[in-house]
Amino acid sequence: MKLLHLLPIGNVDDGLMKDLRPAVEETFRVPCKVLPVRLDPEFAFHGERQQYHSSELLHRMQTFLPATPGECSE
């Protein structure tokens, strides 16, 4: 079974993530789970450009993928 995982990044309200989950499930027609961890994006901030480096964020996000369904690696 496919499962979509939502990973909070930065200071995201837990209530927003809770409310977002059913909308994502309905839109994409796949079960959705909010991961119980959050990613602090500061490591990917590049001051000289005043923006976050997306490749660094995407690479770090992969470490949060569950090793097996229903688990989280961090």
What does this structure look like?
With 74 residues, the chain is an alpha+beta fold. Helix content is 31%, strand content 14%. It is built from two helices and four strands. The protein has a two-stranded parallel ribbon. A two-stranded antiparallel sheet has the order 3-4.
Protein traits:
alpha+beta, two-stranded antiparallel sheet, 74 residues, globular, 2 helices, two-stranded parallel ribbon
What is this entry, summarized?
The protein has 74 residues and is an alpha+beta fold.
Which helices and strands appear, and what pairs or packs with what?
Elements: E1 4-6, H1 14-28, E2 32-34, E3 45-46, E4 51-52, H2 54-61
Parallel strand pairs: 1-2
Antiparallel strand pairs: 3-4
- Please report the number of helical segments: 2
Order of helices and strands: EHEEEH
Q: What structural category characterises the helix and strand content?
A: alpha+beta
How helical, in percent, are the residues?
A: 25-40%
Q: The biggest beta sheet, please?
A: 2 strands, parallel
Strand order, largest beta sheet: 1-2
**What oligomeric state do these chains adopt?**
single chain
Shape assignment? globular
From the N-terminal CA to the C-terminal CA, the straight-line distance is 22 Å
How many DSSP E strands? 4
Mean pLDDT across all residues, rounded? 88
Cα Rg: 14 Å
Q: Bin the strand percentage.
A: 5-15%
Low-confidence stretches: none
